[in-house]
C-alpha cells in the first residue's frame, strides 16, 4: 500500500515537473528556473537593476526570468526597436493582474498608465490632445515651465545659508508645480505646500512597501489571497489603503477645479478641458478623469525630480563639465533672461549634458511592464501571447557597447568631431522614455523641464560639494534609483 502511494506521488511529481518545464519551454530561454520558485532565489528584488545586469551579461538578448512568474527581457537596442516600434501593436498591453490594477490605478483598467485596449487609446489620445491645446510642444507649455523655474530660482536666491543646501524639495516643488499647474490650474508656494509634501512622502512610503513586501508578490501571483482575512490585509489591503489615501490629493484637486466650472466656460486647466469633452464621448467619464490625472501626476512628478536631483550632483562633482556648460550658457543666453528651448540649437553641449544626465542617472530599475497581445516572432525568438515583457532600457543605457566606459559621466561622448552636432547613433540609443506607441506620454514636457531646469540652475549658481563632504553617486534603490540625500553648496553666479 505504502509503496503504491509513494509511487503515485513520485509519478505526480514527475508529471508536474514535466508540465512545468514544457510551460517554461514556450518562453525565450534564460537561466534554468526551478519548479515553483523559478529564478526567484537568484533575484535581488530590492536592487533589481543589479540582477538584470548580471542576467543580461550572461543571457541571450531576449531571455526569460521566472520571478517566479515569467518575465521576458529584451536587452538589445535593435531588437527592442523591432519589438516596440516595428511590431508595436503586439506590445501595447499592460498587465491585467488584479494587484497591479488595484494598486496602480484609481480604478482598475481606467486612465492611461495601466489601462488597455480601446479605453487606453481613447484616454491617451484625449490627454495628449488636451495637453497640446494647452501648449505641449509649443511656447505656452514652455512658458509654464519657465515660470515655475523662475519661482524656483527666486526661492534658491532667498535661502540665507547657501553653504549646505538640500535641493530635493526645491526641485520637487518646481517640477510638481508644472504638472499641478497643467492639471489643476494653480501652483504651490514654496512656504505653503504641505499637501504636496504629504502626497510625495506618502507615495514614497507606499512604493517602498511595494518594492520590499514579499507578501505582496504572493498576492500578485495568487490574487485570491487579497480576499482572505488577515493575510489579505497584510499582503495587499494595507498597501491598497495607502494608495487610496494618497489619491485623496487628486480627488480633492479635481473637485476644486470643477467646483466653479461650467462647460460653456473656456477651460483653464486639464481637468476642465476633459470635463468639457465628456458629454458627446461615452469613454470620457469621471472615473477615467480621476485615473488620468493620478497617472499624469505620479508619472510626471517623481521622474523629472529624481533626474534633476542627479543632474545637480553630477555637476557638483565634475566642476570642469559644469564650467563648460556655464560658458555655453553665458555665450548663448547671457545672464538677463532664462534659457528657452529655441536656444538648444546653439547649445550642443547643454543638449549633450541632458542626454548624459538621463543616461547615467538611468532612474528606472526596470521599464513599465508590457504584455503581448499575440505570439510574436522576433529574429528567431518566440514570445508567447500574454507574456509580460520588460524592454530593458536600464540595461541598454548602461551596457550598450556604443557607450564607452558607460559608468563614467561624460557629456562629451555625444558630441561629433566638429563639437557642434550630436552623434545620432548615441542619441537614438538613449531611451529613458522608452519606445513605441506606449512610450512616455509626457516626454515633450519632461524634455523642457530637464533642459530649462538644469541650464537655469547652472546659469544662476555654481554647484559645489558642501564643505567637508564628497559627492556620493552610489544610487539608493527605491521605486526609482534615487541619489542619497546630500547637501551641496550654492554660489551665486548671476
Ligand atoms: C525624466 C522624466 C521621465 C521619464 C524618464 C519617463 C519615463 C517613462 C517610461 C519609461 C514610461 C513607460 C513607457 C513604456 O511602457 O514603454 C513612461 C510612461 C508614462 N509617462 Fe513618463 N517619464 C518622464 C516624465 C513624464 C512626465 C513629465 C509625464 C507627464 C506630464 C509623464 C507621463 C507618463 C505617462 C502618462 C505614461 C504612461 C503612458 C502609457 O501607458 O500609455 N512622464 N514614462
Automatic annotation (TrEMBL):
Keyword Signal appears in the UniProt entry: no
Presence of the UniProt keyword Transmembrane in the record: yes
Name of a matching Pfam family: p450
Transmembrane residue ranges: 6-24
Gene Ontology molecular functions: heme binding; iron ion binding; monooxygenase activity; oxidoreductase activity, acting on paired donors, with incorporation or reduction of molecular oxygen
Signal peptide region: none
Highest taxon, organism lineage: Eukaryota
Keyword field: Heme, Iron, Membrane, Metal-binding, Monooxygenase, Oxidoreductase, Transmembrane, Transmembrane helix
Family, per entry: Belongs to the cytochrome P450 family.
PANTHER family per the UniProt record, alphabetical: CYTOCHROME P450 FAMILY (PTHR24284)
Name used for this protein in its record: Cytochrome P450
